[in-house]
Each structure stands twice: as structure tokens, then as C-alpha cells.
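Exercise (ungraded).
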Amino acid sequence: RKEVEQDPGPFNVPEGATVAFNCTYSNSASQSFFWYRQDCRKEPKLLMSVYSSGNEDGRFTAQLNRASQYISLLIRDSKLSDSATYLCAVNKANTGNQFYFGTGTSLTVIP
Amino acid sequence: EAGVTQFPSHSVIEKGQTVTLRCDPISGHDNLYWYRRVMGKEIKFLLHFVKESKQDESGMPNNRFLAERTGGTYSTLKVQPAELEDSGVYFCASSQSQSYNSPLHFGNGTRLTVT
């Protein structure tokens, strides 16, 4: 079983729509969680960390559900520039600092 | 502040040849990581340096891969001899601390093609 699983999509949404992605992780010992954004043929860039109580950064909201072992990313008022692949990353404290990544969810925002 | 830089951005080599990838982390970041993404798969951990020491190299595929970080600054990843299955994008990342909640900052990757 993979450490981290994501729906690859693609998600095609109109501008202004709200879209949400989930990411499940298999190991309950996982301690820290992140969302990264990756544009085509570019490096992953940190979008936001995910805190236990949930956190918001502008149009982006991240949440963690430890009981069901998933994290989510909600994007409100989608912009064309939000088109990218969104990767979730999970770190287990007991493996040092080894991050596990999902394969990513592809989002295209349509005019 | 300069980000993580990697060189070369692309490399095409024949099976059996040797390739050396270089990574310069963000200045002051003691933690340096190598990751790899094979087409269609997720980004996977290769190894982690703290300064010049290998903290965790459990993700290295086999002994054809050798990573070094002499002096604790830049790092190199050598593949010798390269095989077809080594093709992929090799990312280097650095982080400020070893804390598990310290995020990774990635370089733009080296796209390696072995023919």
C-alpha cells in the first residue's frame, strides 16, 4: 500500500469555482503535512503547511483529519493561475526527516 | 535569497555512462535531500544529509548511486554506470532544520534521460 494516495484527476473547473482535493496517508504515526504546487516541468513549491486545527491562507484552506487519516485542500474563487498539479507531502517523525509524496492532483481552471 | 540550484537542468546519456548531478542548497541550510521522480510515479526519497554527514540513505536504489557533500555545502549525486531505469527527474531540496515540520525547498531538478 502506498504511504500517500491522491486522486490524480484531472479536475477541470471554471474560473470562480470552489474545488477541493483530498489526500490520504497510511501511517498513523505521520506527524507533519504539507501541500505543494507543481507547475509543468517545474519544481514543487511549498503552498502551505497543514496544521492540526486547520489553517487558511487567502483563498486556500487546508485541513487535517487524523481520525480518518487524510488532509484536504480547498481552493475558493479559482483563478486561471491556480492551474497546476497539487502534491501532498507527509512526514513521519520516526523516520527522521523523510517526506512521502502523493502522485499529485491535476487542476485546470477554465476561462 | 537564492533558492536551491541544480546543475545540469537536463542530461542525456547512454546506458553504461556516468553522470554527476550537482546541488547547491539555500545558504545556511544544513539539511540537504535528494529525491527522484520516475515518470508516472510519485516523488521518492533517496537520501538526507545533515551538513556533510549522511543522515539517512535508505532510499538509494543500489550501489550505482553515490552521493557526497564534502564540506557540508554543495552536494553531488553520481550514477555509475547508468541504466535505463535511472531516467527521471532528480530533485534536490534543503531545509532549515531537521525538525519534522520544517518544509522542504526544492531546486528545479535535473531531468536525466538514459538511452
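Further reading is listed at the end of the chapter. For now, observe: The first strand of chain A starts at residue 4 and ends at 6. The two ends of chain A are 38 Å apart (CA to CA).
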